[in-house]
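Lab meeting, item 3. Inverse folding demo.
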């Protein structure tokens, strides 16, 4: 066999083939360029499914006449300069391949004018070669027309589908971008038919209505963002009344880039679990924002697949945001809010301090979700009857939901425990009562902690208390301390953060009982978090510890640890009474 190096014409066609598979890939590259150029208006006009012509007109920043030819070189990009930059990419394009590839397989004309020029430039290329560059009067922005696709590439042309099929791919793609960029006014025309227009007013719901119609838009719910400081999830999801026979209308975007992801399709499916029939799918627009360095978009030349640094976190944030929205918004019956009927009785019960579920109303200005029917149930019995009720009944753990709540069966119905609040209560009482007092654990590697100057000034006043509750530390020059040991409760949390948290809280001028404040902060810091998966044994252990607390019904900050849905309530909600 003889090995040859392919000539430039062949190699660039092969390279072009990777980027330009079919008309829709060209549309994608061109509109991404328009978006990267900061356009507020993008018109896409397609003839014959894009096989004959694709035209994209934008009002973006344009290209100077000096750079017009350069834009069509392979690896010519204005968006990436260094390897380090690859980690911080916020633009949609960065490879500098698109224009080179597109022009290699078509007849391309581009007219562009940046604000600094009075007159625009027109460049015409056929199969990658520049035919001419001339001055041309033009509005601000860029207009590019691509025609005769794959005229020199019959193998590729053969694989194109009918104009109708290619068109529908283009409609699909443009819809996705219009949804991802509601602040851009989009206009898609196929042949002489307008397919959709969006207003570009920044409202996702209006862009959605432009594409899917007003009727469907009225059945969409805005996604409630589930708290995760590193990942934000926004968007619209269809109410469970609506469903489709396939996944095409599940639109997922990561940092403004449409992606296809089985993982996230799964997250959506799980969130709708039991709300839609088998093999039915929702309509949704999910916008995920995360740090560019937490996602790798450089996986596939067409860039519709991404790799996440922490796929589990993205999965659960998406799943939980959607689930939470559905549960809150879609009319699934939730316990009624107690509004003060039967006030007298409630006060009697609350006053007794014995029946822990009623004590959820521990602070008078907070409304709680004590079901009304439960209060009525109490009325049937003499309040005095509760005086000696064991504080927390014996509970049987059924499982964990949303990695946040422990669901239990008890003597009278369902008991839902907030794992963080419960653990916080347990630790708070332990630390306060001194169980852990002398118990400090030495750190394997001591850490240096920098404190703000205002903390340094007053840290002396709390030194003894800090030592007492288990911190072993010494001054290490200027604003630094060396931390060698932490309270036992901190066994699995970040020692540095914990130390700074405790010091900051103790030195807060509003604190009058410093030991109490320290115990609260330690408890809050060391308690298991919402979102943490627990084994059955761990849940049972936690509940056992909660049972022996003096005040199991609230966390150290007064929020409830338990909600109780008693059997009367369940029966009445299910119409059994
Ligand atoms: P990339 O987008 O990866 O940088 P392209 O080949 O798509 O590579 O484009 C090359 C360069 O041409 C871009 O970096 C940009 O500077 C310029 N360009 C392309 N299209 C437009 C446009 N619509 N408006 C302004 N500049 C553009
Ligand atoms: Mg590009």
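The presenter then showed the designed sequence:
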């Amino acid at each position: 066999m003889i090995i040859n190096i392919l000539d430039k014409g062949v190699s660039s066609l092969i390279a072009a083939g990777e980027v330009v598979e079919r008309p829709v890939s060209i549309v994608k590259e061109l509109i991404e360029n328009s978006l990267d150029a900061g356009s507020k208006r993008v018109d896409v006009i397609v003839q014959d499914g894009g096989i004959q012509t694709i035209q994209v007109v934008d009002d973006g920043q344009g290209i100077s006449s000096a750079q017009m030819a350069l834009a069509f070189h392979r690896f010519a990009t204005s968006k990436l300069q260094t390897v380090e930059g690859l980690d911080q990419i916020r633009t949609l394009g960065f490879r500098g391949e698109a224009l080179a590839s597109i022009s290699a397989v078509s007849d391309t004309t581009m007219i562009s004018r940046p604000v600094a020029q009075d007159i625009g430039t027109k460049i015409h290329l056929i199969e990658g070669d520049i035919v001419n560059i001339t001055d041309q009067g033009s509005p601000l922005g860029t207009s590019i027309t691509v025609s005769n696709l794959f005229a020199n590439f019959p193998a590729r042309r053969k694989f194109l589908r009918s104009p109708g099929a290619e068109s529908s791919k283009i409609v699909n793609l443009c819809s996705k971008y219009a949804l991802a960029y509601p602040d851009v006014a989009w206009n898609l025309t196929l042949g002489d038919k307008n397919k959709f227009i969006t207003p570009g007013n920044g409202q996702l719901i209006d862009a959605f209505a432009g594409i899917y119609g007003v009727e469907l838009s009225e059945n969409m719910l805005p996604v409630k963002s589930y708290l995760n400081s590193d990942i934000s999830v926004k968007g619209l999801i269809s109410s469970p009344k609506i469903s489709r026979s396939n996944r095409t209308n599940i639109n997922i975007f990561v940092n403004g880039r449409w992606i296809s992801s089985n993982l996230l399709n799964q997250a959506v499916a799980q969130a709708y679990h039991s709300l839609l029939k088998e093999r039915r799918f929702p309509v949704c627009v999910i916008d995920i924002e995360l740090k560019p360095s937490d996602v790798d978009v450089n996986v596939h030349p067409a860039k519709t697949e991404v790799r996440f640094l922490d796929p589990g976190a993205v999965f659960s944030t998406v799943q939980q945001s959607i689930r939470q929205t559905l549960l809150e918004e879609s009319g699934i019956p939730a316990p009624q809010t107690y509004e003060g009927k039967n006030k007298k009785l409630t006060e009697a019960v609350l006053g007794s301090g014995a029946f822990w579920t009623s004590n959820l109303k521990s602070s008078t200005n907070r409304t709680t979700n004590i079901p009304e029917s439960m209060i009525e149930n109490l009325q049937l019995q003499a309040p005095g009857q509760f005086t000696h009720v064991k504080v927390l009944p014996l509970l049987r753990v059924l499982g964990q939901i949303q990695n946040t709540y422990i669901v239990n069966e008890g003597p009278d119905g369902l008991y839902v425990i907030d794992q963080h609040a419960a653990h916080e209560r347990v630790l708070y009482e332990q630390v306060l009562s001194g169980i852990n007092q002398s118990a400090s654990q030495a750190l394997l590697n001591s850490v240096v902690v920098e404190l703000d100057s205002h903390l340094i000034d007053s840290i002396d006043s709390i030194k003894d208390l800090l030592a007492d509750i288990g911190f072993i530390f010494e001054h290490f020059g200027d604003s630094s301390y060396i931390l060698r040991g932490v309270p036992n409760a901190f066994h699995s949390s970040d020692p540095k953060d914990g130390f700074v948290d405790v010091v900051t809280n103790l030195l807060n001028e509003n604190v009058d009982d410093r030991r109490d404040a320290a115990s609260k902060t330690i408890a809050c810091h060391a308690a298991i978090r919402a979102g943490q998966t627990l084994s059955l044994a761990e849940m049972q252990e936690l509940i056992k510890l909660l049972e022996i607390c003096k005040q199991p019904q609230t966390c150290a900050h007064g929020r409830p640890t338990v909600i109780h849905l008693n059997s009367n309530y369940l029966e009445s909600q299910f119409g059994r009474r």
